[in-house]
Structures are given as structure tokens and as C-alpha cells.
Design goal:
Elements lengths: L9 H7 L14 H15 L3 E6 L4 H4 L4 E3 L1 H8 L7 E5 L2 H10 L5 E3 L15 H13 L5 E6 L4 H9 L3 E3 L4 H9 L4 E5 L2 H10 L7 E4 L10 H6 L2 E4 L11 H10 L4 E4 L5 H6 L2 E2 L2 H9 L6 E5 L2 H11 L4 E4 L15 H12 L11 H16 L2
Parallel strand pairs: 1-2, 1-3, 3-4, 5-6, 5-7, 7-9, 8-9, 10-11, 10-12, 12-13
The protein binds 1,3-dihydroxyacetonephosphate (13P) and iron/sulfur cluster (SF4).
Length: 378
């Protein structure tokens, strides 16, 4: 057993961190060999298998996906193939957990590399959220409706579901906020402060009606008077990939490419969202850029694999650039390699299931409630 697959560039090695070790025979394979073997395993498994792929996955993996999409669309696709026994999720851990909760009883969800997590999801732990809820109760803050971004662990979704809240994704966050405000006065939004702030601000909620709850501080480190006036209580979490985008990058790209349009994911900081021309989920970004007039030039503020693919598919009619000229890599998404995909598929052919993601029974019910609410909110 070797711990790191020797097929990365120096940059990637530096950013990738530790990935799940593979048996020696799955290391050092050529791209061609992996392509042939993955295709063969898929053929053998036939309709028993469905592969889902998030837009941030790399080309060598996503080309094998039966369905691609953003988090919302992929959650919907889980129900599209009830005949499949195995759902191989090429994405990150929280996505596979959601798939397990939404899947039929007989279906098994598999994440090719168990180390494919999400640093933002790790920024809220169940005990921190429980303490926050208790402290809000102690402070006698009325009418709080919790919303968790889908980028969170099942235990967090279950907590929110049990307390009358919902899950949202970047494509239905505004609708989720409207839903919540029809039920209560304030929203506790976890774990991404930027998605919460950007979405609420766009809906007309002022910045001084928002407070940031720091889980490492007593009572979130929030001033009680500001809390009383606040409509949004934003958890102090963020995506380390999207936090890299800056206003300076937007200024530079506008200088270099006059007429460029800048489109960003709502996980970017507020100042960056304000300086951009447009903002939306990965699905929205792809649709908007694809449907733009020929000759358009775009700078895109999201993960580099999505941006590169968009650039290739739309050239030469449209020019698509990464807003970060060094490219922004989600190193945990990148952990899902073709080698890992090949390994789980060939093992399935042999009747062995590896890396199954199973949400504990005590969390399933309320996680399902919260996810069903999300799917019903348009
Ligand atoms: P989308 O839901 O827009 O695909 O975003 C998922 C994600 O992890 C972005 O960082
Ligand atoms: Fe998590 Fe950010 Fe990667 Fe999305 S891009 S999976 S939020 S670390």
C-alpha cells in the first residue's frame, strides 16, 4: 500500500493533502488503461450502477458521470435512477451523505476517496451548533429559523430539520430565506457566512441587520443589541477556495480585458460579489456564460476545473478566463482520481463494496425532513 498516487504536478501535490491509500496495483496506470478499464467495469455493472459527478470534478473523472450538476441538481438526480443498486458519487463527503439519505433503501452510495471532504463543512460541529442554539435561547432571541447550506454534515442537517429549518444550496438560497422569513423573524445561517450575507443583501437586507456568530466565543461574541436588531445570524464559516477571490483580481482583469464580464459563485466575500457583474451557483454560471452572445469575454470566480472546461467548450466564440490567474483548485474534490474510481468500480464488479457512505439511523429521519424541505422550495 502506498499513500499518495504519483500522478500529480508539483502544485497539485502541495495542495492536495493526504488522500485515501489505494492498493499498489492501482498506482502508476496510464490514462488510456484506466479509461478502458473504467468503461469495461461500467459496461459490466450496466443499469445496476449510476455515477454522479459535481462540476468541480476533473475531466478524467467527470467524463464517466451519467449525470453532472451542482449540489441541488445532483440531489435531484439521486431519485432519477431507482433501479440502480450503486450510486458512485464523484464529489465530496457531504454530497454523498445527502445522496444516502435521499436514496432508496436498497441503494448503496459510494465515495471513491473517503478523504474527499469539504473544509467549509468542517467549520460547524454538532456540539458547537447545539451550544449556539442554547445560547440564543438563553439570550431570549425569538423566532429563529435555522438554515444550513448543503455543504454541511448530516448531523447538522438533522439538527436543523428537527428545529423547523431547512437545507439550502447556492441555487435556492434566496427561496430558502423567503421560506424561513415567512416562519420567523431571524435566520441562523450555517456554515457559510458569505453565501448567507450575499444572498440576504441581494434581497434587500442591510449589512447592519446581520451579525456574525463566532462559535469560539461565548454567546458567539455578538453584541446583544445588534443581535436584537439582526435579521441574519451568520455562522463564522467560509470556503477556503472561494475566499481566495479578491476585488484586486477584478480590477486587474477589467484593466487587461476591457468589456469583460465578471461572474462569481456566492461563496466569495461580499466585496467581491459587489464588484462582480453577476453571481450564481455553478449551474447558473455555466448556463449564463454558455448562453451569452458570441464574442463575450468572461472572468469566472469559481473552481478551476469548471472554468477550464467551460473555456474549452465555448472557444473560440467566447473567451472564458479564471478570475484568479493561478486558478482556484478545490483540493478535496481533486482527491477523487480516476484511479480511485477504477478501484471502487472493479471491486463492485467482484461484489465487494468499498467506501460506502451510511448516515447513522438516528440522523436519517430529520436529515431527510430538512432535505425534502429544500427540494420542495423553489
Ligand atoms: P454548487 O452547489 O453551486 O455546485 O456549489 C457547491 C460547492 O461546493 C461550491 O463550493
Ligand atoms: Fe467545500 Fe469550497 Fe471545495 Fe466547495 S469548493 S467543496 S465549499 S472546500
Amino acid at each position: 500500500m502506498t499513500s499518495i498516487i504519483p500522478l500529480l504536478t508539483e502544485y497539485e501535490k502541495e495542495h492536495i493533502g493526504e488522500r485515501q491509500p489505494l492498493p499498489e496495483r492501482y498506482l502508476g496506470l496510464t490514462d488510456e488503461e484506466m479509461d478502458v478499464r473504467i468503461a469495461a467495469a461500467r459496461r459490466t455493472l450496466g443499469s445496476r450502477l449510476v455515477i454522479l459527478g459535481h462540476h468541480y470534478q476533473r475531466d478524467e473523472v467527470i467524463k464517466f458521470a451519467d449525470y453532472t450538476g451542482d449540489s441541488f441538481r445532483l440531489a435531484r438526480h439521486v431519485a432519477a435512477r431507482p433501479d440502480a443498486d450503486y450510486i458512485v458519487f464523484c464529489g465530496v463527503h457531504f454530497m454523498a451523505e445527502s445522496a444516502d439519505v435521499l436514496a432508496a433503501e436498497h441503494q448503496q452510495v459510494i465515495l471513491p476517496d473517503l478523504a474527499a471532504g469539504c473544509s467549509m463543512a468542517d467549520m460547524v460541529a454538532p456540539d458547537q451548533l447545539e451550544r449556539c442554539w442554547e445560547e440564543l435561547t438563553e439570550m431570549e432571541v425569538p423566532g429563529v429559523v435555522p438554515i444550513t447550506y448543503i455543504n454541511s454534515a448530516a448531523a447538522i442537517k438533522a439538527f436543523v430539520g428537527e428545529r423547523g429549518g431547512t437545507v439550502c444550496t447556492s441555487s435556492n438560497a434566496a427561496a430558502a430565506l423567503r421560506w424561513a422569513f415567512s416562519r420567523g423573524e431571524k435566520v441562523l445561517f450555517v456554515p457559510d457566512q458569505h453565501l448567507g450575507r450575499n444572498t440576504a443583501y441581494r434581497m434587500g437586507i442591510a449589512l447592519d441587520e446581520m451579525v456574525v456568530w463566532d462559535p469560539d466565543e461565548i454567546f458567539g461574541g455578538v453584541d446583544p443589541d445588534r443581535l436584537a436588531r439582526a435579521r441574519m445570524i451568520l455562522w463564522k464559516g467560509h470556503c477556503s477556495v472561494h475566499a481566495r477571490f479578491s476585488v484586486a483580481q477584478i480590477v486587474a482583469v477589467r484593466r487587461q480585458h476591457p468589456g469583460v464580464r465578471v461572474i462569481v459563485h456566492p461563496e466569495v466575500p461580499w466585496e467581491v460579489a459587489q464588484a462582480a457583474d453577476d453571481m450564481g451557483s455553478t449551474e447558473y454560471i455555466i448556463k449564463t456564460v454558455t448562453n451569452s452572445p458570441a464574442g463575450s469575454v468572461w472572468a469566472v470566480g469559481t473552481e478551476v476545473h469548471l472554468v477550464n472546461r467551460l473555456a474549452q467548450s465555448l472557444a473560440p466564440e467566447r473567451t472564458v478566463l479564471s478570475l484568479d490567474r493561478f486558478g482556484c483548485l478545490c483540493s478535496t474534490m481533486f482527491r477523487v482520481s480516476p484511479n480511485h474510481l477504477l478501484w471502487v468500480l472493479e471491486e463492485l464488479v467482484e461484489g465487494r463494496v468499498h467506501n460506502e457512505i451510511v448516515v447513522p439511523a438516528d440522523q436519517k429521519h430529520w436529515t431527510r425532513v430538512a432535505l425534502d424541505r429544500m427540494l420542495s422550495i423553489q
